[in-house]
């Protein structure tokens, strides 16, 4: 099935990581006819990532999701360029493999700022356009660590931020349903990307796999397909939901 996002203007935050979930989503969305905007910290990297997806119907913009003015400027650039904003994928995120007693105030702010504050600011930046258009879809990238507590890569503050995203997502779904704007989340498990890449010894991998019913790590494309479902009309009657994309890890 192709063309699920035909001519839809889709912003993906944190999409410049070469092997990341956002980049995989950008490719898939492009294949489905979307106009894809990669919004990441560095303008050149965003542009390169967008060009790598396609020289046509893509755009790279600079956006620090922790900075409200930066989010608003990115949204305006997109709206000026394409006249609308249909989909926002809140995908930017960072991890810090710390334990509770090791987390400093600075650590806490860094991690919660990118995932949770970033989700709020970027959503606030696009929602006025979606309300005006009378429709849109927002998908938030939480994590299985919101449900189970931290894993080996994200710390407790990461779990807290990702759990906060689930609450914020539901609250926004309630508030904006009347405007035909759907807000949903995904809770990926252990996905092989730059956040996790290179850090998995065979021993750790074997240990992890015992907790994954599907007996494999995820890849970015697994999550991208979840984004596609929640961003497109395939999920037209779904809002305030969280889609588990973790091989069944959430059940442990
Ligand atoms: P990546 O590191 O590839 O992607 C994260 C991107 O976010 C990077 O390009 C990073 O840029 C960017 N970023 C960081 N801070 C900001 C900011 N302030 N504003 C805008 N962009 C920013 O990792 P993944 O693809 O693995 O992660 C994508 C999302 O999926 C994250 O939210 C992550 O928490 C979540 N997730 C990942 C899982 C996994 O196992 N990989 C599991 C569950 C959830 P830069 O590289 O320049 O810092």
Total DSSP helices = 8
CATH topology: Rossmann fold
Q: In CATH, what is the homologous superfamily?
A: NAD(P)-binding Rossmann-like Domain
Principal-axes geometry comes out as globular
Specify the CATH class: Alpha Beta
Task: Describe this structure as you would to a colleague.
The chain has helices at 21-31, 43-53, 68-82, 105-133, 145-148, 156-176, 202-209, 220-231, and strands at residues 9-13, 35-40, 58-62, 87-90, 136-141, 181-188, 191-192, 218-219, 242-245. The chain is α/β, with parallel strands linked by helices and 252 residues long. It has one domain (9-241): Rossmann fold, CATH 3.40.50.720. A 7-stranded parallel sheet has the order 3-2-1-4-5-6-9, with helices on both faces. A two-stranded parallel ribbon has the order 7-8. Strand 7 (191-192), helix 7 and strand 8 (218-219) form a beta-alpha-beta unit. The two termini are 33 Å apart. The structure holds NADPH dihydro-nicotinamide-adenine-dinucleotide phosphate (NDP). NADPH dihydro-nicotinamide-adenine-dinucleotide phosphate (NDP) binds at residues 13-14, 16-17, 20-22, 40-41, 63-66, 91-94, 114-115, 118, 141, 143, 188, 190-191, 193-196. One of its GO terms (biological process) is fatty acid elongation. Its EC number is 1.1.1.100. This is 3-oxoacyl-[acyl-carrier-protein] reductase FabG.
